[in-house]
Amino acid sequence: MFKKAPACAPGLFDAENQTRKQDMSSLDRRDTLLALAVILIWGAHFAVIKAGVTQLGPFVSLTLRFGLTALAFAPFARWPGWPVFRRMAIVGVLMGVIHQGLLFAALGRLDSASVAVLMQSQTIFAVLMGWMILRERFGWRTALGLGVGALGLVVMLGVPDVAASLGGFALAMASSLVLSYAYIRMRQLSHVHGPTLIAVLNGVSFPFALLASFTLAAGDRGWAHAPAADWRIVGFVLAYQVGLVSFSHSLWQKLLARNEVARVTCYTLLMPPIAIAVGVIFMGTPLTRQLFEGAGLILAGLGIVVLRRVQKHRNAPLAAVE
User: Fold this and answer.
1) Among residues 115, 1, 147, which one has the least CA distance to residue 50?
2) Best CA proximity match to 62, nearest among 282, 184, 217, 243
3) What is the tens place of the pLDDT at every residue in 211-237?
4) Which helix H or strand E contains 3, and what residues bound it?
5) Could you count the other beta carbons within 10 Å of the beta carbon of residue 104?
6) 118-128 pLDDT per residue, tens
7) Domain boundaries, the chain
8) Long-range contact pairs involving 85-88 (C-beta distance under 8 Å, separation at least 24)
9) Using an 8 Å Cβ cutoff, are 286 and 163 in contact?
10) What percent of the chain shows pLDDT beyond 70?
């Protein structure tokens, strides 16, 4: 499955790429277009996941995604050594099994637009975890941004689909919290070969998702319902996830290697508006006042946090969900 890697094999996350970073005030035109393309893929992914879980259920969908992605990237993977593999496996369980499982379950209960907005709470959790775990400090402006973002989450409780399923809200919050912690653990993997990381994260997650698909999924959520699914939709969803989403992660890491990280991650603020637009146009999501106000408050608050990172030139990446 793995090829033996030389000690300093170049890769998407390699330290050699870090030396090529440019201290620029903004991204050049090419990287700006690439960043927008990645965010468009990630923003639309919420609606794609929603389409998938309505056909197969969350755990069956995850099993297929993890298995196919691991198979697709295994031929390009390199054995990282046991110490690195163990760290990758921990991140895989956190990011793949727990975060993705909770996210897919939330999308089974809520509209894709609502989940996309709620998942931005990962930035709030990331800053608070950095303060509690890594002893990172932040000033009153960042605290103000966190407060405004938290107020937006409260407003989101009034969105019709969220108000009708507080369990879905709790699942989205739990998914966001786990993702934030996974990104803290992922800082230890900054020099890992890109395809290796994707192959291991998905390969480690696959058996857990498979087990859950047999033990936790029932009725129209399990494998028994698979023959009745619309496999044209399922095929599109899997192609989107295995191909586009995986490629976008590799592209994102190249952007982070070439540019100041804080300036690249600013573009993640465009994800909720894109997700809302895709949900309204393709999924029939109602654009309510509560959704508009909640998303506006969350983005305003997180905008303050991201702006402070840019001003401080802080290169610890904010978590990005896809």
Assistant:
1) 115
2) 217
3) 999 998 776 678 988 999 999 999 999
4) strand 3-4
5) 24
6) 999 999 998 99
7) 26-312
8) 85/200, 87/185, 87/188, 87/189, 88/189, 88/192, 88/196, 88/197, 88/200, 88/201, 88/204
9) no
10) 88
